[in-house]
Specification:
Blueprint lengths: L2 H17 L6 E6 L2 E7 L2 H4 L6 H13 L7 E7 L3 H10 L3 E6 L6 H5 L10 E4 L3 H15 L1
Parallel strand pairs: 3-4, 4-5
Antiparallel strand pairs: 1-2, 1-3
Length: about 140
């Protein structure tokens, strides 16, 4: 599958979050062309500010693999990771991160600028289906105003 196809699956996860009145962010974690974790934000449901899609995907993957690292995995996430998720992804030693929409207000780049906060071997790709990922967020927040 392509990055776009995996991102479409992450968007489906974001849509689940939207339906539950959660900030619509979804994630898919892939290892050897197999999805080993899928999640969406569950901050409101779990009453846990750390229950972001990325964190939940990592936890699921660690449990499935009985490992604390995922150096050969790729995370597809619909929104640029926040600084908290960035730290978790750094420690996971994840091989690749692919995100959709940029997040100027809360994304990691707001705080790190040009510095790479991820593991040195982590590859980063941004902007995959950014328009589709961002439109779901815009609709969600428009409904909140």
């Amino acid at each position: 599958m392509t990055d776009e196809q995996y991102m479409r699956l992450a968007i489906q996860e974001a849509e689940k979050a939207f339906e539950k009145d959660e900030v619509p962010v979804g994630a898919i974690l892939v290892l050897n062309n197999k999805i080993i974790a899928r999640s969406h934000n569950q901050v409101e449901l779990l009453k846990d500010s750390t229950a972001h899609a990325e964190i939940l995907s990592l936890t699921t993957a660690y449990n499935a693999l009985s490992s604390k690292y995922v150096p050969d995995a790729t995370l597809y996430v619909t929104l640029e990771p926040c600084l908290m998720c960035c730290g978790a992804l750094h420690w996971s030693k994840i091989g690749r991160i692919v995100f959709g929409a940029s997040d100027d207000k809360n994304g990691y780049r707001k705080y790190t600028g040009d510095l790479n906060p991820f593991h040195p071997k982590t590859q980063l790709v941004g902007g995959i289906l950014a328009e589709e990922c961002g439109s779901l967020l815009k609709i969600f927040f428009k409904g909140k105003r």
